[in-house]
Design a protein that fits this description.
alpha/beta, Rossmann fold, N-(1-d-carboxylethyl)-l-norvaline Dehydrogenase, domain 2, 2 domains, 8-stranded mixed beta sheet, 10 strands, 14% strand, globular
């Protein structure tokens, strides 16, 4: 089997490395010809993932021609590039695996919605791959779990089989695509908040409250869009939120910490040198919540800090002086 991995950043490279280790022929595509030539020659992505030596079965390329025959396309580009890469016209029957985590900048649409707009009638062959998956840890051999979600159970099972790599990666299936997508997108916003909290030196009390209330907001928006609340208690909700919000490997966490230490968002992003999906997601998710009439004060506070409209202290005061309320919001039934 041949697989096309679109996007040669850290996560795309990690997935290509994983699939290549399984003996699959992998075409790892990137938009920068010089970068792809260097990657093909050195077999190491020195900019994004220097810990991974690519197997011989992985073929870095800037040429789309060999990808035309691949029965599976893995979309591992930033959320803002999904519409563009899907328009590259994968084979009409190819499985499409969305490995990005975010909402489309500007529109605030789920990435599965974007794919469906560009490729009508592709829903049955589209899946989302999401979970607490830090690329650096995966290629270092840390046992990892993730979720393959699709409205078509057969598609989810195909993606599960494709990526399942014992004992390194365990893959679960799910049919709550909205919940899995939202969990993967929104956790990045609250990871920025966790970085801000740590950067301010607030301690574990503050971060625990932030993540718990952030999870409640994720569930609230998910319910408004038709997701199941219990999905957010799984790997793509609590699991991914925990991994992203406590790890110095997380770009979103590092963005928040840098902002708390006095850097502008632009300065912090420049230092990262990579996309931090939580930044654009915070802005469009705030608009989406307003359109749906969903209360998300914590997300709005983080968005206002990122826009430079409020100081961290001012945003914190507005959150801590809100009127009292009860905690119970959902009856979550775990199966």
């Amino acid at each position: 089997m041949q697989v096309a991995v679109i996007g040669a950043g850290s996560w795309g490279t990690a997935l290509a490395w994983l699939l290549g280790r399984k003996g699959l022929t992998v075409w790892l595509w990137g938009r920068n010809p010089a970068h792809m030539q260097q990657l093909a020659a050195e077999r190491v992505n020195r900019r994004y993932l220097p810990d991974a030596l690519l197997p011989d079965t992985v073929h870095p390329t800037h040429d789309l021609s060999p990808l035309r025959e691949c029965p599976a396309w893995v979309l591992a580009v930033p959320s803002g590039a999904i519409r563009e890469v899907v328009a590259l016209a994968p084979p009409s029957e190819a499985i499409l695996v969305i490995a990005a985590k975010g909402l489309e900048p500007g529109s605030g649409k789920l990435l599965t919605q974007v794919v469906s707009e560009v490729l009508p009638h592709s829903e049955a062959r589209t899946a989302v791959l999401s979970g607490p998956n830090l690329a650096v840890e995966l290629v270092r051999g840390a046992p990892t779990a993730t979720v393959a979600a699709s409205r078509n159970p057969a598609c989810a099972e195909q993606v599960q089989e494709l990526f399942m790599t014992p004992p390194l990666l365990r893959v679960y299936t799910n049919d709550d695509v909205i919940g899995v997508e939202l969990g993967g997108a929104l956790k990045n916003v609250y990871a920025i908040g966790a970085g801000i909290s740590d950067g301010m030196g607030f301690g574990d009390n503050t971060k625990a409250a932030l993540l718990t209330r952030g999870l409640a907001e994720m569930m609230r928006l998910g319910a408004a869009l038709g997701a199941r609340p219990e999905t957010f208690i799984g790997l793509t909700g609590v699991g991914d939120l925990f991994a992203t919000a406590v790890s110095a490997l997380s770009r979103n966490y590092r963005l928040g910490k840098a902002v708390a230490q006095g850097k502008t968002v632009a300065q912090a992003l420049a230092e990262l040198g990579q996309v931090a999906e939580g930044y654009p997601t915070a802005l469009v998710a705030e608009s989406l919540a307003a359109q749906l009439g969903v209360e998300m004060p914590l997300l709005s506070a983080i968005a206002s800090i990122l826009r430079g409209e409020r100081s961290i202290r001012s945003a914190l005061e507005s959150l801590m002086t809100r009127p009292p309320k009860g905690e119970r919001e959902f009856e979550v039934r775990l199966i």
